[in-house]
């Protein structure tokens, strides 16, 4: 059985170059899934570069899970259209928090780890995990898969650092 490890806050910041699913635009929203936890952003009408700035809290377990994201176009008279999906392993974030706990307090703005695009994530560009305002923070741009174009920006904060110590 998975053991609770920590809390994370995921901010869905914005999207860029999302695909057209209506006549000339789309009405996008995002669904986040982490294990059996789900969250949904509001719908941004008639926008291919939406700004959500919505924050959601999740519990993460050991072993660290994969955050999944799905983007949709809201339709009123038929099923919502898929606008792509993405995933991100939270293991690098947890490992960076553990390293920071082992080594002690890092100075403000210290980069704890770099994560590059790979099979265990849908990163559009390299991502840094940093120590900011007393939290381990990762800023990411995720490239949407199974679609012509689109990226989603997330900011992820590990908020319960005391729980990030290795379990025995």
TrEMBL record:
GO biological process entries: abscisic acid-activated signaling pathway
Cytoplasm listed as a keyword: no
GO molecular function, one term: GTPase activator activity
Annotated localization: Cell membrane; Nucleus
Pfam family, one: C2
GO CC term, one of those recorded: nucleus
CDD domains: C2_ArfGAP
UniProt key word Repeat: no
Keywords: Abscisic acid signaling pathway, Calcium, Cell membrane, GTPase activation, Lipid-binding, Membrane, Metal-binding, Nucleus
Family named by the database record: Belongs to the plant CAR protein family.
Protein name, entry field: C2 domain-containing protein
Native organism taxonomy: Eukaryota, Viridiplantae, Streptophyta, Embryophyta, Tracheophyta
């Amino acid at each position: 059985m998975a053991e609770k490890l920590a809390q994370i806050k995921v901010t869905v910041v914005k999207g860029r170059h999302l695909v057209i699913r209506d006549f000339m635009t789309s009405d996008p929203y995002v669904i986040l899934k982490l294990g059996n936890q789900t969250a949904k952003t509001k719908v941004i009408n008639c926008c291919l570069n939406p700004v959500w700035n919505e924050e959601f809290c999740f519990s993460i377990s050991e072993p660290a899970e994969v955050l999944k994201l799905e983007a949709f176009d809201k339709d009123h008279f038929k099923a919502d259209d898929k606008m792509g999906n993405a995933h991100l392993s939270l293991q690098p974030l947890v490992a960076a928090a553990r390293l920071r706990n082992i080594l002690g307090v890092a100075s403000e703005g210290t980069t704890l780890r770099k994560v590059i695009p790979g099979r265990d994530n849908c990163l559009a560009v390299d991502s840094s995990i940093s120590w900011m305002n007393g939290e381990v923070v990762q800023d990411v741009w995720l490239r949407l898969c199974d679609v012509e174009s689109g990226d989603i920006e997330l900011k992820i904060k590990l908020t319960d650092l005391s729980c990030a110590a290795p379990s025995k």
